[in-house]
Amino acid sequence: xxxxxxxxxxxxxSLLASGPAVLAAPPAPAVVLTPVQMAYLQAETRRIDETFIxxxxxxxxxxxxxxxxxxxAKGRLTERMARIYSSLEYVLKVQLTPEQKALMFAxxxxxxxxxxxxxxxxxTK
Length: 125
Description:
It contains six helices and no strands. By secondary structure, the chain is mainly alpha-helical.
């Protein structure tokens, strides 16, 4: 009988020692989107990506194909903007100015924020 209490005490102590992460409420379930909302999400994702490509084209003076080739594939383990900078510099055979890099970085931050806000926006459609 004392073994049972000892074991229960160990469980309680281990839960308390592991911190609030174990005792916290489970995460909210993911929002299930309707087919119309999914179509909206996909179309807006394409629009956001296309806007990003257009901004990079204007900033760097590169063609659409050059910019698309400079963007690393999704899921690739690389620093995205560093890869884009170096690839465009290599293709254009010109060093990008710090101002151009800053504008490209700002365009990427805008893209990231728009993509982050998109699921909540799609859920309201």
